[in-house]
Amino acid sequence: MNENWHQQLRNKNRDDLIEAGKELFLKYGLLQVKIKDVCTKAELSRVTFYKHFQSMDELLLAIQMQLIEHLTDEVSRTSTKDLNGREQLTVMLNAWVVFAQEHPDYIRFIQLFDINYEMYDFSPELREQYDKFNQNGKEKHFLLHALSVGVADGSIKNLSPPLELAQFIFTTLMGMLQRVVKIDPSKSSAMDTRMTEQFVKMLLHFVCSEETPEG
Fold this sequence. Notes:
It is a single chain. By secondary structure, the chain is mainly alpha-helical. The chain has helices at residues 2-28, 35-42, 46-52, 56-76, 85-102, 104-116, 124-139, 144-153, 162-180, 190-208. The protein has a domain at 79-208: Tetracycline Repressor, domain 2 (Orthogonal Bundle). Helix 5 (85-102) packs antiparallel against helix 10. Residues 34-53 bind DNA. It comes from Paenibacillus amylolyticus.
């Protein structure tokens, strides 16, 4: 029991550091936040920080990967096997939009990270770690099952390979959400909601018809 308590405390400290880092990076940018800022925000010591992360760069990557995993896990959880492929995909895309509306900070951070990734001075080891994370996410894409089921049952007729479609959907929908998501969900306008709903319908129509993404 004592060992479990210590593990729970370690997990909580790590989560607190990640949450503090996320808030500070979004507020001040990726280059302006220091370890002492994160520790102060999380109310933890530098010693505790270094028990979990060797550098701010490692914290930054950990935040990005955790947010993406949380998003994909939540969206995947909404799909059920009693639906055909198109229905599964529809449920998941709508859940994705709701998740973005409820967690705008996730979408904003992922966007901030993506914009700055190539310019940021990550070590080769950290870049390799993130590249492996992305490659694993592509090979085991969270939309792949629904798309494969849809191709098999005929509800998805797009001629592109399911994996290519999954990557196309992710890039396209995230791009849309990053443009309409608001810092304060209560300030989202009816127009933003209608635009997003219409965009999802257009995306579903494209994915389920006999077309292929250009390029």
